[in-house]
């Protein structure tokens, strides 16, 4: 029995849900999201709650049960509150600028790197070279933040690069000049 899957999702006020077979459409104050769910899971809406039931008892179906519930819960949270990830650009001369839907990163390459944000994602850069990636789709926000981080991963000697704000970089000791 899935401990996650058997919990119903309570819908906040202002969130509408449309269920057509395996297709779930959720709309709220920040926007609307759609997803095709697994056919092994039955989704039902009653009295302001969404319930999930498996159509079998195999280990694979039980794992889809909990995963489906979590994906739909993330959709409900996204259209109601939204998600964000914060990144920090560290290094001498490293900086980030935002112009329209393009994030320009000067991170030690010979030319600045332009990163075009996907549809539905917004970014903001403050004066401390902190990038905030925001949107209603949790997967897309996380994937976009990971792609930005991949442009210049933090290196272990000085910690230069792009890292998540809560990420800890394990530092290595460099060469010693004289003994």
UniProtKB/TrEMBL annotation:
- In which domain of life is the source organism classified? Bacteria
Q: Which GO terms describe its molecular function?
A: rRNA binding; structural constituent of ribosome
Protein's UniProt keywords contain Ribonucleoprotein: yes
Keywords of the record, alphabetical order, are: Ribonucleoprotein, Ribosomal protein, RNA-binding, rRNA-binding
- The residue ranges of the Large ribosomal subunit protein uL6 alpha-beta domain are 12-82, 91-164
Q: Name one Pfam family in it.
A: Ribosomal_L6
Q: Which InterPro entries match?
A: Ribosomal_uL6-like, Ribosomal_uL6-like_a/b-dom_sf, Ribosomal_uL6_a/b-dom, Ribosomal_uL6_bac-type, Ribosomal_uL6_CS
Q: Which GO terms describe its cellular component?
A: cytosolic large ribosomal subunit
Q: Which residues form the signal peptide?
A: none
> Per the UniProt entry, what are the Gene Ontology biological process annotations, in alphabetical order?
cytoplasmic translation
Q: How does it assemble?
A: Part of the 50S ribosomal subunit.
Which protein family is it in? Belongs to the universal ribosomal protein uL6 family.
Function of the molecule: This protein binds to the 23S rRNA, and is important in its secondary structure. It is located near the subunit interface in the base of the L7/L12 stalk, and near the tRNA binding site of the peptidyltransferase center.
Q: What is this protein called?
A: Large ribosomal subunit protein uL6
């Amino acid at each position: 029995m899935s401990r996650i899957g058997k919990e119903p999702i309570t819908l906040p006020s202002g969130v509408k849900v449309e269920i057509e077979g395996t297709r779930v459409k959720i709309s709220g104050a920040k926007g609307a999201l759609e997803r095709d769910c697994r056919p092994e899971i039955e989704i039902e809406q009653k009295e302001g709650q969404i319930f999930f039931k498996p159509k079998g008892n195999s280990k694979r179906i039980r794992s889809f049960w909990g995963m489906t519930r979590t994906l739909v819960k993330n959709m409900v949270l996204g259209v109601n509150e939204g998600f964000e990830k914060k990144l920090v650009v560290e290094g001498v001369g490293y900086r980030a600028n935002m112009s329209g839907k393009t994030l320009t990163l000067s991170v030690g390459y010979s030319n600045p790197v332009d990163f075009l944000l996907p549809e539905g994602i917004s970014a903001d850069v403050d004066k401390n070279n902190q990038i905030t990636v925001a949107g209603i789709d949790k997967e897309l926000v996380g994937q976009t933040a990971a792609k930005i981080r991949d442009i210049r991963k933090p290196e272990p000697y000085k910690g230069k690069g792009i890292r998540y704000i809560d990420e800890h970089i394990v530092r290595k000791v460099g060469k010693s000049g004289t003994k």
